[in-house]
Amino acid sequence: MTAATLSPDTFKRAFRRHAAGVVVITVDADRGPMGFTATSLTSLSLRPPLISFGISTASSSWPHVKEAPTVIVNFLTAQQEHVARRFATSGIDRFAERDWHRLPSGEPVLTDTNWLRAKVERVIPVGDHSIVVAQVLQSDLHNDGPPLLYHDGTYHSIP
Predict the structure, then answer these.
(1) With 145 labelled, which of 20, 44, 77, 83 sits at a CA distance of 20 to 30 A?
(2) For residue range 12-28, what is the model confidence (pLDDT) as tens digits?
(3) CA-angle at 126, arms to 72 and 60, nearest 5°
């Protein structure tokens, strides 16, 4: 199969075999809190500390993310599958639960998560997604729980 004939379903099926950590990206671009579940988080650089993630430009979160000066990466634990599912669901108020608060700088952060606060440095359009590159400014790494993983269309934890 060539790239020209590779179907989106085949491409998705290939990546379902790749286990990935689960995060929720949260932002507030002066329109209220918004967030989405992601498995595309990557560390890019130590000096300076840079991260990246991809987001579909057709997603309901995209208009908020493209205008946000900062993002919060909330690392989910194995006990937070319900949070991952909520932030992956379209058409609901993902912040209706009271399991979040605002940082002094104003961004929404999920309670009981390890998190990174990062300043958006660059947004790169690529296909039907954009890649967001951000410099990490702050972190809170207090939770030692096992991570939530996504593999083959389902959530998992490390035993």
Answers:
(1) 44
(2) 888 888 889 999 999 99
(3) 50
The CATH number assigned to the domain holding 91 equals 2.30.110.10
Report pLDDT digits (tens) over 88-114: 999 999 999 999 999 999 999 999 999
**pLDDT score for 16:** 80
Cβ neighbours of residue 65 under 8 Å, at least 6 residues apart? 25, 27, 29, 34, 55, 71, 132
SS3 38: strand
Closest CA to 34 of 5, 55, 13, 10: 55
Q: 110 is in which domain, residue-wise? A: 31-151
Residues in the chain: 159
Q: Based on the structure, what is the number of domains in the chain?
A: 1
Q: Is residue 41 part of a domain?
A: yes
Q: What are the tens digits of pLDDT across the range 123-154? A: 999 999 999 999 999 999 999 899 999 999 89
